[in-house]
Amino acid sequence: MKPENLLPVSLNFDPGNLGRQWAWWLRGHIPWSPPVIRRSRTLPALLHTLPSALRPAAEMLASRYDLSGWGRGCDAQGFRESLYVLDVLDRYVDSPDSARPGLDIGCKNGCYLPGLQAWSGGPWDGVELDAHRRYWTLTTRRAHGEFVARSLPGCRYLAGNLLEVRGRYGFISWFLPFLHAAPLQDWGLPNRFLMPQTLLDHAWSLLAPGGRLLVVNQGEAEAQRQARLFQESGIVVSALGRIESPLSPFQRPRYGFLALAHGPPPHPRST
Predict the structure, then answer these.
(1) Could you tell me the CATH number of the domain that includes residue 68?
(2) Domain span at residue 195?
(3) Of 100, 110, 124, which is closest to residue 75 (Cα–Cα)?
(4) What's the domain count of the chain?
(5) Is residue 92 included in any domain, yes or no?
(6) What's 266's DSSP letter?
(7) For residue range 207-231, what is the model confidence (pLDDT) as tens digits?
């Protein structure tokens, strides 16, 4: 089988990919970031950053989960995304095994780590491949992610490739994995990082027996592709259908899958 990260020569040498490879190299070789400066807010102040129609749903979650520490790490966007992630987990997933840490794949700038930690009550690792991407303030995703992680007990922000992650996790969340070339390219990543089957197999190997993997895809085409990837990896999965939440800030429909690791991870497939 041809390795997934070896694309045809005609694609390896297209100008767009060369530009993305150069930008990727540059980001990786200039990782310095100014410190993140963010004022702490009270929970009522964060609630008032939401449209009034969303506050009842947010207040319901606040009555059931401990959001008291969110004011140290959340800005308005992170607060909204953390509420959304917490609501999705609350609606679609049973209580987690808090004895083991969780892992979030592709955590961007760590903005919704508070939602994951509030749901499980335990520590989380967030891993992000493109951690040195910069904002207009010159701060990087990594600087923001580490700022948020420091505000949450036991949480860590990991800058790097999922394939470098080792350990055993009780729960893994994966929102919007790259399954097709166009979204990967839109985010400015080189073609070689499009390896959905390899990444899925590695993510599955990180689950402890009894651990669970939640994958959320955007759009029907990605959900159909995701279902095929699970089948090709021999992973028995429950399709959750369309993921609904009144706190969703997103336009396009999302679809979810939940898989339970019953025993030791399967042997790696031959390539």
Answers:
(1) 3.40.50.150
(2) 48-260
(3) 110
(4) 1
(5) yes
(6) P
(7) 999 999 999 999 999 999 999 999 9
